[in-house]
Amino acid sequence: MSSHPTNVLLIEDNPGDADLIRLRLTEADCAVAVSCVDRLSAAIDKMREQPPSVVLLDLNLPDSRGADTFRAVLDKVPDVPVVILSGQDDEALAIKAVHQGVQDYLVKSDITSKHLERSIRYAVERQALLRSLDLSRKQQLDFKNEFLSHVSHELRTPLTCIHQYVSLLLDGLAGEVNAEQRDHLGTVLKSVNQLHAMIRDLLEATRVETGKVRIEPRCLSISDLILQAIAMMEPIARDKCIGLESGLDVRVPLVYADPDRILEVLINLIDNAVKFTPPEGSVLVKACMVDADPGMVYVSVSDTGRGIAAEAKPLIFERLYQDPNRVDNNRAGLGLGLYISRELIKLHGGRIWVSSDVGLGSTFSFTVPLYSLAKLLIPTVVCQGRVRDAIVLVKVQLTPRTRPPRASWAEICRKCFETLERCVYLDKDLVLPPAGLSGPDEMFFVVASTDMQRVQIMLKRIREQLESRTDLPGSGILTVSAVPIEVPSAISGKTTEAQVEEVAGQVTDMVKLALGQSQQSKEAN
Prior knowledge:
This protein is α/β, with parallel strands linked by helices and 525 residues long. It has helices at residues 15-27, 40-49, 67-76, 91-99, 113-170, 179-209, 222-239, 259-275, 337-347, 373-381, 409-421, 455-469, 472-475, 496-524, and strands at 6-11, 32-37, 54-58, 82-86, 104-107, 218-220, 243-248, 255-257, 282-289, 296-303, 352-356, 362-369, 382-383, 386-387, 391-400, 429-431, 442-448, 476-485. The strands form 5 sheets. Strands 2-1-3-4-5 form a 5-stranded parallel sheet, sandwiched between helices. The chain has a 5-stranded mixed sheet with strand order 7-9-10-12-11. The longest helix has 58 residues, at 113-170. The radius of gyration is 31 Å and the shape is globular.
């Protein structure tokens, strides 16, 4: 072993066994500094203060037993090598421990000084090698991602130039083109667009892998998002004579998700479904609740395509995976869409999976979290164990003066939301997370513990603050209004929690109605 002392943390509650281990280390004549604790909790506190060079661990302690003991140590100090000292010769447990990250498993009755010294030395050296390999792997990954990002950015400029000039030729701005030339230029433009899509996916995958992708969740209707995705993909499906429909459960409540990112996932899944479904087939997008998982909304995209082979299912969400038996070679990508979708769903705290049988089509499903309004409302609408007598829903709507809005409109909306949060009383009012899909018109909601007469003071304060502290007056129109919420009767016999759930249901319905009316107004314009 090294001439420098090795700091050994011995976690052992049996004084006799602890003395035996110290004796074996002394007999080995190795340079070690041994400290001993008899409980896992004390060991974790000690490791947090100063991580040891190696941990010698007894599995059965007063506050932990068996496999849970080494899992707890590995979780708290993953970079410190762990050697188990057990009173039982349990081969199955030893294999499990090594597979989960333990460096060695020694039986106390068989320990000799030479054996113990060699086990500690090997454990320290193996752990150092693993750290070196992890560092090297991380450096290689960073270099690869930096290289891919740089190349992708550099490719964008010439591709944009090609796209612009081909478009000029197709539009006849550089002279008339005949039918054959137009076909050739159309092929060029299609290939350029395909390269653009590949580069976009490559950059997005790199950002995902390096942790640079962030989500901005909003309170929104997943049904609206699905209908938007279907409207965007319907022309592609129609060109291939594929039916694209939705099956939406009207009982699905609002979800808490980033609309742009979930829309990206939906587009990826629908595009794949259309790509692998033959003409005259169909694609169905559904959203529903599942009793076994009440905190999530389940979204699925089903197709009548050829299905996925059993051996491909475990690989299909991996980066750069491509189906070797794909039907449409002309639309082959980089195999990043499902990988990106998986990572985006993970960021939302959901999961994504596929069920498929060859020849019977495929169903890709994912979950997004529900917007749990009742939990947020309890501190606001409950006082001294009962629901307040009067509650009002305040709506703040921002409408841009120009279409499309000014480039700074998104930033103005963000500042308005921050200002709105400072206009309320924290113990009596709740500013709901931004609601609806991203778009020019923005809507914010406040649940206020007041009545319709007193709320006028709040409305005046909100108008004054938003108009004086932001650039809104020159860029948009501000509309502030309030509607009362029917408070459940205290003599109804319902529990306080049930009454809050009822209030939350009313607020959800009112928000959905306001968002629906806003969407209809946009479509009418």
